[in-house]
Amino acid sequence: LAENMVVHMSLMAVQNQKEIAKLKDELTVSAQKIEALEGENEALKRTLAQTQIEIGRKLEPVLTSLPVEFTMTGFEQHKRNKEVWYSPPFYTHPQGYKLCLKVRTALERKESHISIGACLMRGEFDDFLRWPFQGSVTIKMMNQLQDSNHFRTTLFFIGPSTVVGRVTSGERAERGRGEDLSYNILEYQLAKHCLYLKDNCLRFQVTRVMNTSWTLLEKQCLAIESSVLIPPIEFTMSDYDEHKKDDTTWISTSFYSHSHGYRMCLSVDANGYYLPVGPGSSKHHTHVSVFVHLMRGDYDGQLKWPFRGSVTIQLLNQLDNKDHREEGIRFGDSTPNDNAGRVTTGERNKGWGRQFIAHRELTYNQAKNTQYLMHDCLSFRVSKIVIKK
Which pLDDT value is given to residue 326? Predict the structure, then answer.
């Protein structure tokens, strides 16, 4: 019996050794297959990268270097037929976001206005880009009589996915960003020797595209929210006369004081509300008033309240890069908590500000070469925010 047991165990040992050898062979084959697949994967990655580079090289001559210019022909035909004009595409940078200009010559609620804007397009490099697109596009509408007094606007891509999201159906995004301008702007302006619409054409230049998310990454993650704006930043109040006539208040896009800072916005009253330090308010029809509102922000729990500091605002001289009207709005110990405290109800606090400029000073001043109101627009710059420690 003992001898039989020894023989049986020996046979089992041999069989196990055969099974082990077989498994080793299978593992060796599997390892070889894995190694081959890894090699193929690396080869595919190199091919994909090379293809991307080649596509980029082919497309680089196609309007990837800013500034780029476009000419809209047949303006009157577009206006008469209520057609939208789209420019050829351009890229924010090589292998970047694809956009085009968009001009609407017939607006539903503003028949006497034109809209100049831009919208995202389906691009060749969308798989490799960050979405949604967060940034701005600066456009010039060219004065066709001389190389000065061009109309400039900066469009900020913030808001819903239909504006800033990746285009997944169709050629272009459903919506874009634009600025509405009166048709009167296009006509000849003697004082400035300026004419935008000439020979039934408008000329545009895309001068700058800022990808805000990349800028923030380069600056170690500045504040990120739906509107990633940090001073210095500019805003344009359009339809000044309409706001003045209807006694309505213009509200800017929100912005932050600094990285992970206080969220704010501006409000402008064309008829000149003035809020003194004490209680109450009064109405003046001689000045433009500007206010700063603290808003509910993403970092309020990390900040000191009430807000103490100053916001420096400039009303830009639209004829020259000097002689801007500048005022500082200070939030001090006497500022009421309704203006300087943390926002706990609603979206923003009451505004804190002052009379900014008299109506009579908005128009052209030949002696100083200043003009703050132009094309029915006022341009403001939040140049600096100082926080009191």
Answer: 95
- Taking only the tens place, the pLDDT of each residue in 270-328 is 988 654 434 444 556 789 999 999 999 888 988 999 999 999 999 999 888 889 999 99
Which pTM value belongs to this model?
0.47
Give the Cα separation of 220 and 25 in Å (integer). Answer: 52
Q: What is the amino acid identity at position 159? A: G
Q: Which residues contact 220 (CB under 8 A, 6 or more apart)?
A: 259
Interatomic CA distance for residues 351 and 283, integer angstroms: 15
Residue that is written with structure tokens 């128009």 in the block: 363
The alpha carbon of residue 95 and the mean position of all alpha carbons in its chain are separated, in whole angstroms, by 19
Q: Where are the alpha helices (DSSP H) in 60-107?
A: 75-81
Say if residue 56's pLDDT is above 60: no
Q: Which residues, in sequence order, are bridge partners of residue 256?
A: 263
Start-to-end Cα distance in the chain? 95
Are 352 and 332 contacting, i.e. CB atoms less than 8 angstroms apart? no
Q: Which residues pair with 90 in a beta bridge?
A: 99
Six-digit token pair at 66? 């800013």
Going by the DSSP 8-state scheme, the letter that residue 186 receives in this structure is G
